[in-house]
Structure formats: C-alpha cells, structure tokens
Design a protein that fits this description.
2 domains; 8 helices; 198 residues; mainly alpha; globular; 2 strands; 2% strand; AhpD-like
Length: 198
C-alpha cells in the first residue's frame, strides 16, 4: 500500500491532469513511477518530468549504457518499480541477460564489452563511494566526451532521486505484478561488487 494518495485521472485537479495527459501522450506512454507521488506538487512534477524525459530519451549516451547505469542504481536502492521498468528496457537495449541477472542477484557481472564494464563501474563507484576513480572517469570521457560524463552522472543522480521517491512513498508496481527482488542485506543499501572483465 502506498503511503500517499495516488489520484486517478478522474480525481486530479486541472494542473495535475495537464501533467498526466502530457506524460501519457509522450514517450513514456504511461504514468507508473515517481510522478504518481510528485504530482501532488504539480510545478515540481512538470520540471521533474521534463528532466527525466531528457535523461532517459535524449542524452548523447547509447540507450544500453543509460539503462545499465539505471539498473545499477535500482539495485543499489532495491527500487522495485525502477528495476521492473528498466531491467526490461536494458534487455531491449542489448544488455546481456546474464549481466542483468548478476546485478539482480547482487553478484559481480561479467563483461565482454569493456565499454559496458566502464559504465557499470562508473555507476557502481558513484553509488558506493559518492565519487568515481580517475581511471574509470577518464575512460568514460575518452569514449563519450565531457558531455557524456556529465550526462551519465546526471542519469545516476536523477534515478537515485527516483529510487528514493519510489521507496519512501512505497509506490506500488502495476496491479498483478510481483516485486522483482527482496533486499540482499537485512537492512541498508545493497553492496555492489566490482565488474569482471572477460
């Protein structure tokens, strides 16, 4: 059960309904995530929606790299809705099912693609330590430039905010869906192991 009312379209005020209509008619196509809570602050929700849409659909980063960074974030925070949405998106973008399964289980994923390993490590280090080592940072800049490393950091930060919002308000999965995982540890954030490079 959510901790906050989640109004349906017919229960929304005019500002909320405008936002809802813009979300469901845009690239998301539905409103199932944090905007269900944030809609209680329509001005914030409009800014949030625009920011999130840019980071998910319009950065210079390949979709596979964005989605990989997002599922690392979802696993760190054990964010059920975020994982449910983005594990499927990561698979569609080309991330191997074995990598997704390892992250899901809290095990070290094995990467044949060193670019993907670098994205994983960048997201893992940022989530685990609050910063990123020079070597991994340098490889991201070499591959994606200054714009790419800035946008990757923003993706991870934004989806951390998404995870926190989903978790604190206990936003449920769509009806009939089973939570994708339980916390690996009894409390606190999930520990993310280092990538293995093949």
């Amino acid at each position: 059960m959510p901790r906050i009312p989640l109004p349906g379209p017919d229960e929304m005020n005019e500002a909320q309904r405008r936002l809802y209509d813009s979300v469901v008619s845009g690239p998301r196509g539905r409103m199932i995530g944090p905007l269900r809570a944030v809609i209680h602050s329509p001005e914030l929700a409009v800014l949030w929606s625009s920011f999130g849409e840019y980071l998910r659909y319009r950065t210079c980063l390949p979709s596979a790299h964005k989605e990989l960074a997002i599922i690392v974030t979802a696993r760190r925070w054990t964010s059920q809705v975020e994982w449910w949405v983005h594990a499927e998106a990561a698979a569609k973008a080309g991330i191997a099912k074995t990598i997704i399964a390892a992250i899901h289980a809290g095990k070290a994923p094995e990467f044949g693609d060193h670019a993907e390993a670098d994205i994983y490590e960048f997201a893992r280090q940022l989530q685990m330590t609050g910063t990123v080592g020079r070597e991994v940072y340098g490889r991201i800049v070499a591959r994606h430039g200054a714009q790419g490393v800035v946008e990757l950091t923003a993706v991870i930060g934004y989806y951390t905010m998404v995870s926190m919002t989903l978790n604190v308000h206990e936003i449920p999965l769509p009806e009939g869906e089973t939570p994708p995982f339980t916390p690996i540890a009894s409390e606190g954030l999930t520990v993310l192991p280092e990538a293995k490079r093949l």
